[in-house]
Specification:
This protein is mainly α. Among the domains are: 1-33, no CATH class; 39-175, no CATH class. Helices cover 69% and strands 0% of the residues. The protein is built from 13 helices and no strands. It has helices spanning 3-18, 21-32, 41-53, 57-70, 80-100, 106-116, 118-121, 151-171, 180-209, 211-226, 240-262, 264-267, 271-276. The radius of gyration is 47 Å and the shape is elongated. The termini are far apart.
């Protein structure tokens, strides 16, 4: 949703054009305090990482609560377990980061987290071992926690969070003002298709009515007629026996007519003809 920033600029430009200076100031203040970061996934992930790295539990919970009310709570029911799993993974990353910090705040931050989250996490089996974390000297070497101290696991959590936010923002219904780009692209595509079809139709009409088109068609027909024509044997499907029999009958008929022509019957004149002579 990178076009959100462009829409923000359009709104600000319009407010300045109308002379709404006080509204512009309020608009700029809201942009600075924008928790959604213009729906830029990378900025949101960076903000969450910041809360984790500085061990700001209140900021992390507040920010996640904002995302939950804005986006996650509107998702379908079957998606909620995946969202909750990512949330708890971020809490575990928070504990791992706090446990690795130096300066004497390690156990303090871990204990603070467990005490504040006790009511929410104590009834879940996956969190039972985590309440022992403040009392383990080297948790990164403990079989129960070693996986969470690896870079691969932490990166997988951030990638999952990034993919979740990207998918959700892509599917979110948008106001009319922010959907102008898609509408403009669709209109441009339809206009191009109409122009192409109109040009094709006009060209076909020109080819049918113009003398050049008529002459070109005559030339095509002339080429076809002037070329070698295939010889078609109408008797190719007649069996040879039938063809020989027909020839014999034709010869016999010609002989019979020849005999009749030379016979006295054919050469005799009728009495009527004699009387006329």
């Amino acid at each position: 949703m990178a076009h959100i920033q462009f829409v923000d600029e359009l709104v600000r430009e319009y407010l300045l054009f109308r002379g709404f200076t006080s509204t512009v100031k309020a608009f700029d203040n809201d942009l600075k305090a924008d928790k959604d970061k213009g729906f830029r996934v990378d900025k949101i992930v960076d903000q969450i990482i910041h809360y984790v790295n500085v061990s700001d539990l209140a900021g992390l919970k507040e920010y996640w609560s904002h995302l939950d009310s804005l986006v996650f709570s509107k998702l379908e029911v079957h998606v909620q377990p995946a969202v909750r799993k990512i949330e708890y993974s971020l809490y575990k990353m928070y504990l791992v980061t706090a446990a690795q910090s130096t300066g004497g705040v390690r156990n303090e931050k871990v204990s603070e987290f467990l005490s504040k989250m006790l009511s929410e996490l104590q009834g879940q089996n996956e969190w039972k071992e985590w309440f022992m974390l403040p009392y383990i000297q080297k948790p990164e070497e403990n079989p129960s926690f070693s996986l969470y101290f690896t870079r691969a696991w932490q990166d997988s959590v951030l990638v999952s969070l990034h993919n979740l936010l990207a998918t959700v923002f892509q599917c979110m219904p948008q106001p009319t003002l922010t959907s102008y780009e898609n509408d403009a692209t669709l209109v441009k595509k339809l206009q191009d298709e109409i122009t192409a079809l109109r040009g094709k139709t006009q060209q076909q009409a020109i080819d049918k009515t113009s003398p050049i088109g008529h002459q070109s068609r005559l030339a095509q027909y002339s080429d076809r007629l002037s070329g070698p024509m295939p010889l078609v044997d109408d008797f190719c499907a007649v069996p040879a026996e039938q063809l020989d029999s027909g020839l014999r009958e034709a010869r016999g008929l010609r002989g019979l007519l020849r005999q009749m022509g030379g016979s006295p019957v054919m050469g005799r004149k009728t009495p009527r003809s004699q009387s006329q002579n």
